[in-house]
Specification:
10 helices; 348 residues; globular; 44% helix; four-stranded antiparallel beta sheet; alpha+beta
Length: 348
């Protein structure tokens, strides 16, 4: 999730865990700091843009390493404030803050390596967008209320309300995702498309409009399918658009290190293409929409893949028109998207 969400979540968790044992401002401050610490791994340069992507949310987001770090941070905090008698309480509070950071990140689609050093499998539920005001605002308002209120008991009550509302929203997002996934899979079966994997993620900033991406069972099938589904669309079959996924290029270059690395990290949701300049490009299909994606990596000429540093090229649709489209499409209105090259044929 975004930094603001992690900061206010950290503050809320620390306030709840410390309760009346220390001042609310101390708990909120150290909760915010601890809630930010795991994301400091972004300052590490692993050598190229693709490695920087797949190694973000790695060791610094490991539940194991964060558990070992929590007592060290708690020792420093408790001694700084001369609250050594609260060491165990600070340890619990800061441990909860540290581990809820990667657990919240795992609700997004990016991929969080929660179980390092035992496995580098990236976990990503994908039921919330990386920025979602409906999740963050209740936490922000209620933490602010807890800090402002002179009555600590009332402040703790409002802080708890924020945690309950934000957690309930995460549960709602998972239920909505499951509903759309079932609807999409049923439509794929009815249209005769054998899908190996189906990805369902929300369009930006909300959980009413969902993007569906389906990969074929047959590796020789040259297309993946994409659709947008609103919770207000009703029972009508989902209509998909077919897009080239570079199956022939994947057959030739799929074993090259950078291609294999991103393919594994993205759970297979990638496509390969060649740029007008003759560069081989790999695209993470999970974040963006056809034809604009955040994580495109140019890998060099096809014959040089693996011997040159991948470079990232981000593509985004026009922000204003895209937001207006989401605002209309999320209520079930059939409105053409504002980005070029997207059609809505049936996959039958």
């Amino acid at each position: 999730m975004d930094s603001l969400s992690q900061i206010v979540l950290g503050s809320a968790v620390a306030i709840a865990a410390m309760g009346r044992r220390t001042s609310v401002w101390k708990a909120a401050t150290w909760g915010a700091i601890a809630g930010t610490l795991p994301d400091l791994d972004v300052v590490i340069d692993h050598g190229d843009a693709l490695l920087n992507m797949v190694l973000h949310r790695a060791e610094s987001h490991s539940l194991f390493w964060l558990t070992l770090f929590a007592p060290l941070l708690a020792w420093g905090v408790s001694h700084l404030h001369r609250e050594g008698h609260l060491f165990r309480h600070w340890t619990l509070a800061l441990w909860l803050v540290l581990i809820t950071h990667p657990l919240l990140d795992a609700m997004t689609v990016y991929g969080t390596q929660l179980l390092l050093p035992f496995t580098n499998r990236p976990f990503g539920v994908g039921s919330v967008f990386i920025i979602d005001p409906a999740y963050t605002l209740p936490l922000l308002v209620c933490v602010a209320a807890a800090l402002r209120m002179k009555d600590t008991t009332r402040g703790l009550h409002w802080n708890a309300v924020g945690l309950v509302l934000s957690t309930a929203y995460l549960a709602w997002s998972a239920l909505a995702q499951t509903h759309v996934a079932l609807q999409a899979r049923a439509s794929l079966r009815d249209q005769g498309f054998a899908a190996e994997r189906v990805l369902v993620t929300p369009a930006p900033f909300q959980t009413l409009l969902w993007r569906v991406v389906a990969l074929p069972d047959d590796p020789a099938n040259p297309h993946f399918l994409e659709a947008y589904v609103s919770l207000f669309d009703g029972p009508a079959p989902v209509r998909f658009a077919a897009h080239d996924r570079g199956a022939a290029l994947m057959a030739r270059h799929g074993q090259a290190a950078p291609v294999a690395r991103l393919t594994a990290f993205a759970g297979g949701f990638v496509k390969l293409s060649t740029t007008p300049q003759g560069q081989l490009r790999i695209t993470d299909l999970r974040m963006g929409q056809e034809p604009d994606y955040v994580f495109n990596f140019d890998l060099g000429a096809p014959g040089a893949v693996g011997s040159v540093r991948p470079t990232q090229v981000s593509q985004r649709p026009p922000v204003g028109p895209a937001l207006r489209w989401i605002g209309q499409r999320m209520w079930g209105l059939e409105v053409a998207p504002p980005w070029p090259g997207t059609v809505r044929p049936s996959a039958g």
